[in-house]
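User: Please predict structures.

Assistant: First:
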Amino acid sequence: MSETLARVWRPSTARRVVLDGFAPVPRGTSVPTPPLLAWPAKDPADVLDYELDITAAVAGHETDRIEAVTVIPTPAGAGHLVVGEIAADGRVAVVWLSGGQAGTTYRLQLTVTTASGRVLGRAVALPVLALAAQAPPAGALQTPGGATITDEDGNPILIGG
């Protein structure tokens, strides 16, 4: 007997990046550029939810929450990363992503607007890698253990190619 199950969706914290706090900096000092935020890699076949937590940016304003989110991936176009549903869960922006080309690290520019009018812009990197096991193409060079040998871009090296 087969039943259709009810679905309860909660964002996955496994793919959450968190903004650091906004610390005051004394005059005359330079602040090092923080590293680019990055989500864990996805396979081109994955359709997953990714999160950006802005809690630190609205600290001290307990009632502020996300009202709007825009997401612009680079590179973009046919065959590249697809931005699906965008939602907010209080102070966490949730973006559903699918597709993408293996071997490409995408840069997603997120712009978050809060209920009180704050606007935050952050870039997040998302590497897309061929994580699912795939049969090597005909003529691919392999190690004695059966692993496919690839070039620096992750493409299989073909014998005679």
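Second:
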Amino acid sequence: MKKSVVLIATLASIGAVWAISPQEDVLDFRNMVGVVAPYTGTTNPIRGVVGPPGPWTIEDAKGELRSDGQLRVTVRGLVLGAGPLTGQNPLPVFRAIVSCQSSDSTGAPTVANIQTNDFPATPAGDAHIEEVLTLPSPCIAPIVFVTSANGLWLAITGR
């Protein structure tokens, strides 16, 4: 009997810690991959986000998404992977999209894509994106995209 009381008290205290910890990491990443075929163009979007006409490469990326919506993404060397401007970034700004599997008011599954504002990008493809977003509840299996200003994805979390 005493063991079950201790176990319940311990579980209750752990639950209290989870409930009052509003800034937990939802996603912490140390790499991204640039868009490649077959994801270039409009044929094979990922969660409704389409790729640009040609490939992009990325040298380095890191970031985190917190449960309070704080998003931080740093990219280095996000550049065109083919064509006359290979190895360069012709875009003055990047954005990010956080994509979550969620549910609507009836409980049916949905995809929620939340986009940041513009952030300056260098010709070498370097940028730092930092913004607080309003995440849906629940936000399951989040993916972070780095995009152009018109929403074409250039890099995505994962490898």
